[in-house]
Amino acid sequence: MDKHSLFLFDLDGTLTETHQLIFDSFNHVLMKYKSIQMTPAQILSYFGPPEEVCIRNMMDGIDFDPVWKDFLEYYRSHLGESIVFEGIKGLLEQLKKRGKLIGVFTAKGTSTAEITLEFHGLRSLFDIVVTGSVVKNHKPNPEGIEIALDRLGIMPEDTIVIGDSPSDYKAAASAGTDFIAVLYDNVSRNRFSNLDCRKAASVSELSGLLLGRGDCGDRR
User: Fold this and answer.
1) Which of 57-61, 65-69, 70-74 is least confident?
2) DSSP 165-180
3) H helices of 1-131, where?
């Protein structure tokens, strides 16, 4: 994988385990403003655009500003309940030592993405962060990848995208970049069961692939 100049990572489920925090943050404001709770599947049905758009859609006319303020305050104050997957920071540091460009392409909004990266001490490692707040067309549209390539002056064939969802895979395919699926849990494994792409079942396997320590992944 040393042929690549740019390594573009998804955030939630790829670099950090933040899914429960996201669900809890949504349910915090849903309970406060609408006296309802949603299941993870119900919350995920709103995903595609960033959180601020999802909240507008969920709240159905309720004044957005206080809801968004409460959402961000809850998210920020509970970030200690999220983690960076073990081995990720070391992998990113090794890529930087090799002179590689690394970036984030996430459906998260700019506010939550930056808060998350700063809290976990990752922000300074990235050359670019493209969020759902700055694109008109969200994943699986390749617009976010294309923005990163354009700003960094990198060709698609010199880029690899790493993500945990089929929307990441489809965006990479449309942009003409390489792709690796990370399968850290059963949910992500099931998502990719019928997709033919390079896969890594752990951060260790991902590191092996990206740092050229052999083909540790498979296409299962």
Assistant:
1) 57-61
2) SHHHHHHHHHHT-EEE
3) 19-34, 40-44, 51-59, 64-77, 88-97, 110-119
